[in-house]
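[Solved] Which block belongs to which protein?

Original post:
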Amino acid sequence: MEKLKMHSPDLTAQNVDRIAALFPGCVTEAKGPDGTLRRMIDFDLLRQELSDSIVDGPQERYHLDWPGKRQALITANAPIAKTLRPVRAESVDFDTTRNLFIEGDNLEALKLLQETYLGKVKMIYIDPPYNTGNDFVYEDDFAESAAEFLAKSNQVDEAGNRLVANSESNGRFHSDWLSMMYPRLRFARNLLSDAGFIFISIDIVELANLVAVGREVFGEDSLIGVISRPTGTRMGSGSRGIARELDYIVVFSRTAGSELNGLPMSDSDLSIYDQEDDRGRYLGSGLR
């Protein structure tokens, strides 16, 4: 005879799981009544998800925040009245091709693609602005004036008087970049299939912010890893004494716990690993 369970299901935990499946960014950590950290719902952010206007009401919790985040969520959820228009004259094999090349604002294009490709894309690769301060064809410098940032983040009043002792003026270089990335990552997640992955190129300037905002959008357990990519050997050193010769590709999965299948290595690939210890073969490389 099967034993009866002596406890009922934790319905609250099940509800948290359901909300996490729909809105992974709304699940956070907070202290429970017994003082231990528990998974909880960020009701402020959930209310924002379900509203088309900015909702106030902060509470103390662990989460990623920046001036302009709520407006970025409004932007993500706002509908648009546009359509994709085919251009036969500039197309190749228009009637038989299986490829699409879309020209236009990338956020608007992502919104339009939801109608046809929702949950159907196996792999996405994006190369967003690195926010380096260099001049690019697209807007790649998201710096705003210190005065604008302090006012937006409620660190000064209307007269310019400082309201907090230790202001974070350096954040002005990152807040607008996060506001640009946030809605685009949300729509990219919607497009991915359950077995899908997204690969995002970035350099050290916004690497930490990309990992943080990606974990909020895709879920804490969806970070597959960060791939280092050599950009070439640079002579000398950087402005702070260490040469920058790497950029990165951050990988997230649509479904928590997914794994990428590895490719077998050829004899040529293996030949560069010329040293070995009790854990296997490896390649030694000096610091630069």
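(Second protein starts here: sequence line, then its structure tokens.)
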Amino acid sequence: MAVTAFHWSNFLIRLVVAFVLVFATYNPSGNSWIHWFIQSENKLDPMIILSAVVLIIGWAIYLRATARSLGFGGSVLVIALFGSLIWAMIFYGWLSLDNKSMLGYVALSLLSLLLAVGISWSHIRRRITGQIDVDDVETDV
């Protein structure tokens, strides 16, 4: 029998994993897989390939779960919400377009949040509405 309880700590774990996945792939500081690959003389270094495969597996899990739970329309709505949030931050002077690094960190953080919400959406919706997904129903057959 699967555990169906979902707590905020479960969401935070998924959020931390999403942050690690996104920021390990790319970040403005220059310490990321993309920078490592570009600066490497040996593009076929086994550690570069191994880490690429691990990142691809992580991205596949998160993107597939987000696509299945939020769908295309839901993902577009979340992106529109986050885009509006960034626009408001720029409009009210909390974020400057001149500071590309900070803009990158905000965008990558919001992408991590999108992935964490996407992978957790079925649980979040069940807690909000009381509805369950067909995949969650267990039978005694």
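Accepted answer:
You had them paired correctly. Confirming on the second one: The helical segments are 8-25, 33-39, 46-91, 100-129.
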